[in-house]
Amino acid sequence: MLKATTILVVAFLFLDFLWYLWQFCRKYIMLQNSRPASYSKTTITELMIPAYANFGGKIHGGILLSLMDKVAYACASKHAGTYVVTVTVDGVNFLQPVEVGELVSLHASVNYVGRTSLVVGIKVISENVKTGQQKHTNTSYFTMVAKDDFGKPTEVPMLELESESDVRRFLEAIKRKQIRELYKEDFIQEKSNLEIEKSLHLLDNERAILKF
Ligand SMILES: CC(C)(COP(=O)(O)OP(=O)(O)OC[C@H]1O[C@@H](n2cnc3c(N)ncnc32)[C@H](O)[C@@H]1OP(=O)(O)O)[C@@H](O)C(=O)NCCC(=O)NCCS
């Protein structure tokens, strides 16, 4: 009886030891394939020259979008260590116009990583060099996917969250992803249920005129 109990205890301790060894190895392997958020933080600063302006004298939104895509690429590819592509963009609202002569700085960091995708958060600040006055023109989120040499999505390193802000950004990205998926499902449902005749009342308070 005593012998059986001893064997059971030893077996239990051995299994326990194996479990801890597995956890340790798993953590070690994961750390080998992870990068801190600070590793890929990127800033691009560009002078807004007259060639970037629209007819109203303000900077074209497309110029800023192109700069955001550039900084998102730099940041995501640094984290992934591969070539990346832009998949989707959230939250592009230009809150204030950018003037010719201002210095625009785009601050990018990896907010979230999935298996092959990354979300890069970009804060755009425009500065009047004479007065030093700064304005926050927008914050947007670019989802990028890492590609291998054959153009197939490839796994990215895990993200090491080094501060409370890193954790907050990661959690916010999860929420945005969930809301986007819900919105997508709801919209598909609404679209397939849309009956034009029954929905015409929605035009009552809109600035549209029926001409048929
Ligand atoms: C986006 C793309 C890589 C998806 O390829 P796929 O073979 O369908 O791959 P998967 O379904 O495995 O998706 C890969 C990742 O993209 C994510 N993804 C795909 N579509 C997405 C979307 N609309 N929004 C957010 N993420 C998306 C998936 O969630 C997955 O992420 P995960 O691995 O972290 O979970 C592919 O459609 C593509 O290459 N598109 C063109 C991108 C491009 O050229 N951009 C430049 C524009 S000119």
Describe the 3D structure:
This protein is α+β, with helices and mostly antiparallel strands and 212 residues long. It has a domain at 30-160: Thiol Ester Dehydrase, Chain A (Roll), CATH 3.10.129. It has four helices and seven strands. The protein has helices at 2-32, 61-80, 164-193, 196-199; strands at residues 34-36, 42-47, 83-90, 103-113, 117-127, 134-147, 158-160. The strands form two sheets. A five-stranded antiparallel sheet has the order 2-4-5-6-3. It has a two-stranded parallel sheet with strand order 1-7. The protein is extended, with a radius of gyration of 25 Å. The chain starts with a helix and ends in a 13-residue tail after the last helix. The mean pLDDT is 93. Coenzyme A (COA) binds at residues 85-88, 114-117, 143, 145, 153.
Bound molecules: coenzyme A
* Average pLDDT taken over every residue: 93
What's the CATH architecture of the domain at 30-160?
Answer: Roll
Shape: extended
Looking at the structure, the CATH topology of the domain at 30-160 is Thiol Ester Dehydrase, Chain A
Q: Can you tell me the CATH class of the domain at 30-160?
A: Alpha Beta
Uncertain segments = none
Counted beta strands? 7
Query: Within the largest sheet, what's the order of strands?
Result: 2-4-5-6-3
